[in-house]
Input
Amino acid sequence: MPVPPSSPLPAAAAPQRFPAGFLWGAATSAYQVEGAAAEDGRTASIWDTFCRTPGKVFQDHSGDVAVDHYHRFREDVRLMAELGLTAYRFSVSWPRVQPTGRGPGVQRGLDFYRRLADELRSHDILPVATLYHWDLPQELESAGGWPERTTAERFAEYAALVGAALGDRVAHWTTLNEPWCSAFLGYGSGVHAPGRTDPVAALRAAHHLNLGHGLAVSALRAALPAAAQVSVSLNLHALRPLTPSAADRDAVRRIDAVGNRVFLGPMLAGAYPEDLLADTAHLTDWSFVRPGDQKEIHQPLDWLGVNYYTPTVVSATAEDASPGREDGHGGGEASPWPGADRVGFHPAPGERTAMGWTVDPTGLHQLLTGLAHRHPDLPLMVTENGAAYHDRVGADGTVDDPERTAYLHAHLAALHRAAADGADVRGYFAWSLLDNFEWAYGYDKRFGLVHVDYPTLARTPKSSARWYARVARSGELHPPAGG
Ligand code: IFM
Output
């Protein structure tokens, strides 16, 4: 059945102006860019182990070297400054700063992030640190991983340690990046590390990620100056029913429950949604949620990070669709959707990126305005948005990527429109600053504003980076030429 297109947002006739102080950023994560996997005391994370498991990652690629940001961060910060960025979102590698996931921190690892923050600040670029972007110390996984409560407790200790070490130079913090992926791709479909395929483990992991978030917010607030800002970044699914039928709308409800509200519920409203508990009652009685946990998770946040790439179209049944396997990160045999594994996933109509993801900025507008409506006092930040394309270096040494420019343009226009419609959006972080290790896809997918030649690690800003720099410097988005 053809999927109906979403109604386009009205095109802006005049330049769209962003407010003074709006953050113009780019994002990366430790395992995807740092490399230096065995240096200065770092030990294995679940991704090091996963990459060494044959067949899990494209051509058995790994983050051993990645794009060597660990050694080249000064050059990378210079590039950010040239691109007019006012903020850089990076993540701290847990196995680099606390290798076994418990006990004291490793000073050499912590010093890397202190130097990075200093370098950023010396270029007037705001450091925005994420505590966890998927690289759990392997030792903690061997002790049970996120399905076990102790991992949440360890995470709080790690948060306190990192907060104390960096709190004098980093004021903007995010606890978790995309806990949906950690729980449901890591323990449900198994297409991400640690590669387990157990729906109950996935639900337990989701709860312990939520709990880890709540405990970490408290630990950070205790370790940081009062003015510090603490947040979390969620990859919220912008959902559409395939048809207006009640059955397809119920599919939207189910995926919303296990894709969005499983985190939004406890984090922002202090309770798991009743319909999620009902949908998954055949799997678990949720007795791993202890009295007091939901209160612990429900901590005031300074902003909510929204990561958005593409909308999600669902139907009640998997006939003529990919049966519950659609996760945007490669297929697996098992479903990442406990309690909703009969739901069908359909490609949204329109142009696709190299990931096969449809370009549809209306999904970003939908998420931002929906959140603003439900949580009017919570500022928002787009902490990831971007697109992979098959970029090539031209004969003249430049990289021309007009599709990425068009993608970024359309999504910034949608963000601006959402702000005009009432969403309090404080900044935008393009994913990603650099081409990097795209998880199970290895180095096969390029999301960077800056091209990386993997054999030499040479950096070349793409034409989209030059365009983004002009927007960031002027704070204005002009209607696309000819559009
Ligand atoms: O590369 C990832 C990132 O690590 C998390 N969000 C989605 C990006 C693109 O898949």
